């Protein structure tokens, strides 16, 4: 489990663990092991390391974790996409990998000040921040809020597939929150825009970092109100109502999508059994 403390961020050291990135791919050893000790790789002269927190190995011990981005592919590793690796691990590893990738993206994308163009200075404090030495503008890791929603109609759940998804996978409606919009308004708008129906009884379900590249997914449950399913061209390949006892292939439970689908189906079963 990852612990994000408020103590001063350490510099890279021999006893830490490292998540290695190359061209936005994660470098792994055998059996998808992604936490690498310093003794097993040669640091690159241009390698940048960002502190992620402490990974609790046992109840009594924890190790510092850094994420490092390489300019050239180091020997002895193979590449795997972040999305693929996320789905191979449990939720604790999912959260660590998401945080590492988001911090590495922030570090790479904010080398220069967006206001005056000066090179930013990293501050090893109790927070992740970069400060412009000329105009004092501060940059913190960017977080973009998104909504994801499980919609119920009787004993059925709405599931859909976007163009980027595998052909055998079905998931929830999701999308970015617009400026000046509440999370609940975003839920109603995204469902309306992507599949043409209206929803009601929108309620919070949970949240999860989603590092593609820096989203925070906020999950909701909602009930169908009106309209006919009409997939938006270019956004949704197919959408349908699925009986909770005959669900298709859905994301695993390490993801918030898999979690809210499973939780919603279980809640519906409980409600039906109590009638």
TrEMBL record:
Xref: InterPro entries: NudC-like_C, NUDIX_hydrolase-like_dom_sf, NUDIX_hydrolase_CS, NUDIX_hydrolase_dom, Znr_NADH_PPase
CDD domains: NUDIX_NADH_pyrophosphatase_Nudt13 (cd03429)
Enzyme Commission code: 3.6.1.22
Catalytic EC class: hydrolase
Keyword Hydrolase set for record: yes
Any single Pfam family the record assigns to this protein: NUDIX
Protein name: NAD(+) diphosphatase
Organism ancestry: Bacteria, Pseudomonadati, Pseudomonadota, Gammaproteobacteria, Oceanospirillales
